[in-house]
Design a protein that fits this description.
The protein is mostly helical. About 80% of the residues lie in helices and about 0% in strands. It contains 3 helices and no strands. α1 runs antiparallel to α2 and α1 packs parallel to α3. It is elongated and about 50 Å long.
Amino acid sequence: MHELLPVLLGALLGTAAAPLPGPRAARFVGGCMAAGALASWVNGELVSSFAGVFFSFDAFLAWCGGTLTFYGVERVGQRRAGRTAVGH
């Protein structure tokens, strides 16, 4: 259950990053790092001797959740744009 938080934060990042113009990659990576740090802090993992491992894993989970959501939002946007271009 503790590993759901970084995935949800990443999904939030992916949803927010999809419509933004400009260099999204740098903002997305920074956001995933921040989401990983926040999730590790909320779960109390930063006081452990394995804090770096927990932080890295949480940042990776945020990246996974964000990437899947980002491409899902992009895909839905492309489908909607295709339908409106055809006139359906």
